[in-house]
From TrEMBL:
Pathway: Carbohydrate metabolism; D-tagatose 6-phosphate degradation; D-glyceraldehyde 3-phosphate and glycerone phosphate from D-tagatose 6-phosphate: step 1/2. Belongs to the carbohydrate kinase pfkB family. Belongs to the carbohydrate kinase PfkB family. LacC subfamily. This is Tagatose-6-phosphate kinase. Keywords: ATP-binding, Kinase, Lactose metabolism, Nucleotide-binding, Transferase. It comes from Paenibacillus spiritus.
């Protein structure tokens, strides 16, 4: 079973205005409230692919209840720890460009934090925990490491999609896959990454530090996959972008779900790119039919041997 862990879920409030008047009154052309938070997005895409999974993490308040209802109505398995604070609302403003304003997240009390660790310590060998997204400030960056230790002690595996210190701390614990986008990768290494060679070099350094697969997503420019033995590249399939929020999470869902089901790293890579692009071309996350339509368009090229 795949478990997704979202420490900081959200309702994503997608707001479309024509031209943004800063300091003035703007009227919305369109708005949409979607379940959000990176792990929750992974769960929703896995579910659409027909892959059994359980969404866990923290939910609270009226927003948390709404999210839980939405996930229940979609038929997604849930095992959230319910907290006192309100789950955040993240604003995704579309005014030509996409601008995101994400909340910090509610306060998580110590007993609530301990409860999630207890739940994850019940995973079984063969299970995979997908840990995604930001950490509410009250938990601190070290919390992910405690969760991972519980998962590993239970004999289960884990994948990680977060940034900064939390990601670096997870590397020695050997994540199945990590997925920085090219901007996050540059930030991790404190440098600009202009060429494919530079991206691959940084990806390899993350392998050396313990990751087992490194996916580098590059939005409309496709993605790179760095494994122990080689580096691969795909272009993104062509299409009209509608809402790219959750494209990276969709990619993780396709990669982890397919790797778990087939054992094929390249099929997992292909599925990941198809899921990511299908989401970018949809208002909400991708539907299975859109993913299947794009899958054959994803051509994978081996570009380098590792080592
Ligand atoms: N504009 C686009 N056109 C085609 N495919 C896209 C586009 N944006 C994203 N994708 C697909 O989705 C994958 C992941 O996208 P991206 O690199 O934007 O991830 P991300 O930054 O983690 O996204 P997010 O944080 O919005 O979930 C890309 O590798 C690509 O396959
Ligand atoms: O603030 P975080 O946890 O880093 O990211 C949260 C978020 O931006 O990520 C998802 C898209 O990947 C959205 O559903 C959600 O609003």
């Amino acid at each position: 079973m795949i478990y997704t862990v979202t420490l900081n879920p959200s309702i994503d409030y997608i707001v479309e205005v024509g031209e943004l008047q800063l300091g003035g009154l703007n009227r919305m052309n369109r708005d949409l409230k979607l379940p959000g938070g990176k792990g929750i997005n992974v769960s929703r895409v896995l579910h659409r692919l027909g892959i059994a999974n359980t969404a866990t993490g923290f939910l609270g308040g009226f927003t948390g209840r709404h999210l839980d209802d939405r996930l229940r109505s979609e038929g997604i398995g849930r095992d959230f720890v319910f907290i006192e604070g309100d789950t955040r609302i993240n604003i995704k403003l579309k005014a030509g460009e996409e601008t995101e304003i994400n909340g910090q997240g509610p306060e998580i009390r110590e007993a609530e934090a301990e409860e999630l660790i207890t739940r994850l310590s019940r995973l079984k060998p063969g299970d995979i925990a997908v840990l995604s997204g930001s950490v509410p400030p009250s938990l601190g960056a070290g919390y992910y490491s405690r969760l991972i230790e519980a998962v590993k002690k239970a004999g289960a595996d884990f994948a990680m999609d977060t940034t900064g210190e939390a990601l670096l701390n997870a590397l020695p614990l050997n994540p199945l896959v990590i997925k920085p986008n090219h901007h996050e990768l540059a930030e991790l290494f404190g440098t600009e990454l202009r060429t494919e060679e530079e991206l691959i070099r940084c990806g390899r350094r993350l392998l050396e530090r313990g990751a087992r697969h490194v996916l580098i997503s590059m939005a409309g420019e496709g993605a790179l996959l760095i494994t122990e033995s080689a580096a691969y590249r795909t272009a993104a399939p062509a299409g009209t972008v509608r809402n790219s929020v959750g494209a990276g999470d969709s990619m993780i869902a396709g990669f982890v779900g397919t790797l778990d089901a087939t054992g094929s790293v390249l099929e997992a890579f292909r599925a990941g790119v198809a899921c990511g692009s299908a989401t970018a071309f949809s208002d909400d996350l991708a539907e299975r039919s859109d993913i299947e339509r794009l899958r054959p368009q994803v051509e994978i090229r081996k570009i380098a041997h590792t080592g």
